[in-house]
Write a structure and sequence with these properties.
With 208 residues, the chain is an alpha+beta fold. Keywords: Membrane, Transmembrane, Transmembrane helix.
């Protein structure tokens, strides 16, 4: 079975988007809560109007970047329309790897601030190495954040209907509970198989 491999730019987008919760935590830590009840003013930086962040807009820029990458990644998955029928022979759910994913969150609570340049650069280097490792190993799609939005990663053995069907084993993303003996539709995006139940299967599941 070949590894699940995105191209570099989509891989980087998925990786950055997966750390949207971390960017939200850092934004919350950077917020000046003494200005929480101050009257709204615009634009910031004029007169008595100040940005309610300790380090200017850096934390806000990181937050917006991660949010954009997350929305783009989920949007790309949502627009895929699987149309090619396949028969599921075997399906095994693969749990997401939580340990490596949660390490940066632990670091964020160890007095990490944007103004602490050394720690912030160290976090960027750490995340950079994590990205390279997950990208090179083809493990990027083991993204716990996808679970929140209903996606699950499977190792499936499937075959395309025909006179002499050949079984293929690969990884696939699906929002359905894949079971052996199920007819599904499949599409491929960036070498990743996206599987959805056929209309008939979905109707059967809804009626039970």
């Amino acid at each position: 079975m070949g590894k699940l491999q995105f191209r570099f730019v989509p891989s980087l987008t998925v990786f950055i988007g997966s750390y949207f919760p971390l960017s939200l935590i850092l934004l919350a830590q950077d917020y000046r809560y003494d200005l929480l009840w101050s009257p709204f003013c615009w634009p910031p930086g004029t007169g008595n109007c100040v940005v309610p962040l300790q380090n200017g807009t850096l934390s806000l820029i990181v937050f917006v970047l991660c949010l954009f990458c997350l929305v783009f990644s989920l949007g790309a998955l949502a627009t895929v329309k699987p149309k090619t029928p396949v028969d599921i022979k075997e399906a095994r759910y693969i749990p997401a790897e939580l340990m490596a994913y949660t390490l940066p969150y632990v670091v964020s609570f160890m007095s990490l601030e944007y103004k602490d340049t050394g720690k912030f650069v160290g976090l960027l280097i750490f995340l950079g190495w994590m990205f390279i490792i997950t990208y090179r190993s083809g493990q990027l799609i083991l993204n716990p954040l996808l679970i929140v939005f209903g996606w699950r990663l499977y190792e499936v053995t499937l075959s395309y209907p025909g006179k002499n069907p050949v079984s293929i084993t690969s990884w696939a993303l699906s929002k359905a509970d894949l079971q052996p003996g199920t007819r599904c539709n499949v599409a491929t995006i960036q070498d990743v198989r996206i599987i959805r139940l056929t209309t008939a299967e979905g109707a059967a599941d809804a009626s039970t």
